[in-house]
């Protein structure tokens, strides 16, 4: 499956020869891809319905910043994003509305192989937009965490130039990927001298359009290419190829099933000793495939060895779960307490509050060191919160281990 991204600087949906000439790049991309993400469509809300009819083989959905019913629009319509997909994908596509006008997503579910494409248009780099940029990165991270699929592609105009070492937004984007275990796939799969924007005024180039992927999503990327030969304006599209067959299969939980929780630090010593005994008994019944375990071929292709090892693994997991079953606790209501809050978040929270108070006392300045400190402490606090949320299970297990020592 091929997915393309393009900042079209105005998507013309009419059927006249003039409109067709102005969207020649979009029409050419639709011949080469299955899904197309476009940014800066400049479409009002009243014209988004035309995304389903302007092309014979594609349907679409979009978001807009402009509602013509609210009054006269000054200047041109700004922003807007849209995703177009081939009609053959209609049974597998589910549009995800994010309730914001700068991004839209689709979920593709083909035979329980699920992935999500989030199309974004980020603010351009300037000091006034820095706080907004950080907030939108936090929104993207929350979107990824709130979805069950482990394969998420964030594509679009990130307005972060990787080739400019002084660019602050690119540093924020790279730090965002490092903090949240995400991969900047465009950086890994494309040459370092790549560019996606041509400045006619300064006769320079910049690399503003990117793809950020989760680990599972990045593993399915076969290739990525910037289509320099298709550019007729200052923006250049890029296209990537996904191997859908390599996507992990998603298992849906039955409704009404609640996950069990085992809180080791609350168990008595007698319970732990009983668990040891039950584990020994159950593990003793697990069959060990000696032929597979003693195989010395690191490139072994014996199917029976693979099957035997998978069966042994499943039996070991089942034995451990069965041994711990008497100590499960079930909860229908999630706790608001996050492990690691005092260690990782509390100090940043206090610093952010103090910096905010200082900013208010200073008259809420729109520039200067007081505002910079407020932005910095607020960003650190948000990243700390996301860290404890993302690593909740690891931090909880670490706390349980320490209480048992």
Describe the structure.
- The chain is of the alpha+beta class and 405 residues long.
- The protein has 3 domains: 2-246, Deoxyribonuclease I, Chain A (4-Layer Sandwich); 278-329, no CATH class; 341-404.
- It contains 12 helices and 16 strands.
- The strands form 4 sheets. The protein has a 6-stranded mixed β-sheet. It has a 6-stranded mixed β-sheet with strand order 5-6-7-8-12-9. Strands 10-11 form a two-stranded antiparallel sheet.
- A hairpin with a 2-residue loop joins strand 6 and strand 7 (113-121).
- Helix 3 (130-146) runs parallel beside helix 4 (168-179) and helix 3 (130-146) runs parallel beside helix 11 (369-390).
- The chain is globular and about 80 Å long.
Q: Please, what is the average pLDDT?
A: 87
Order of strands across the biggest sheet? Answer: 3-4-2-1-14-13
Q: How many domains is the backbone divided into?
A: 3
Query: Which CATH class of the largest domain applies here?
Result: Alpha Beta
Judging from the principal axes of the Cα atoms, what is the shape? globular
Strand proportion, as a percent range, falls in 15-25%
Distance between the termini: 51 Å
CATH homologous superfamily title of the largest domain: Endonuclease/exonuclease/phosphatase
**Considering DSSP H and I runs of 4 or more, what fraction of the residues is helical?**
25-40%
């Amino acid at each position: 499956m091929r997915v393309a991204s393009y900042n079209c600087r105005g998507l013309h949906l009419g059927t006249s020869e003039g409109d067709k000439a102005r969207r020649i790049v979009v029409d050419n991309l639709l011949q080469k891809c299955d899904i197309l993400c476009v940014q800066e469509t400049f479409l009002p809300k009243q014209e988004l319905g035309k995304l389903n009819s302007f092309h014979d083989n594609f349907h679409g959905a979009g978001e807009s910043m402009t509602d013509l019913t609210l009054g006269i629009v000054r200047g041109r319509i700004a922003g807007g994003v849209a995703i177009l997909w081939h009609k053959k994908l209609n049974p597998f596509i589910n549009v995800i509305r994010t309730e914001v006008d700068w991004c839209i997503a689709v979920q593709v579910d083909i035979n329980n192989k699920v992935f999500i494409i989030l199309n974004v248009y980020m603010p351009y780099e300037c000091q006034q937009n820095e706080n907004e940029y950080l907030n939108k990165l936090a929104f993207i991270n929350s979107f990824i965490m709130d979805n069950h699929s482990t394969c998420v592609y964030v594509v679009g105009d990130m307005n972060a130039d990787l080739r400019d070492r002084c660019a602050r937004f690119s540093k924020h984007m790279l730090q965002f990927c490092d903090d949240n275990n995400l991969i900047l796939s465009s950086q890994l799969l494309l040459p370092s001298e790549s560019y996606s924007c041509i400045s006619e005024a300064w006769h320079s180039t910049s690399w503003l359009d990117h793809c950020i992927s989760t680990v599972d999503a990045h593993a399915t990327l076969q290739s990525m290419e910037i289509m320099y030969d298709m550019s007729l304006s200052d923006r250049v599209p890029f296209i990537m190829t996904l191997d859908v067959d390599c996507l992990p299969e998603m298992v849906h939980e039955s409704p009404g099933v609640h996950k069990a929780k085992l809180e080791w630090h609350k168990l008595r010593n007698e319970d732990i000793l009983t668990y040891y005994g039950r584990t020994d008994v159950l593990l003793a019944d697990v069959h060990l495939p000696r032929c597979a375990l003693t195989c010395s071929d690191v490139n072994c292709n014996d199917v029976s060895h693979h099957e035997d090892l998978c069966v042994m693994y499943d039996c070991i997991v089942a034995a451990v779960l069965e041994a711990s079953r008497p100590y499960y606790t079930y909860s229908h209501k999630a706790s608001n307490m996050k492990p690691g809050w005092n260690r990782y978040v509390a100090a940043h929270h206090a610093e952010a509050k103090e910096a905010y108070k200082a900013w208010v006392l200073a008259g809420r300045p729109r520039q200067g060191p007081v505002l910079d400190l407020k932005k910095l402490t607020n960003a650190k606090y948000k990243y700390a919160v996301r860290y404890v949320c993302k690593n909740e299970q690891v931090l909880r297990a670490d706390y349980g281990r320490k209480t048992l020592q």
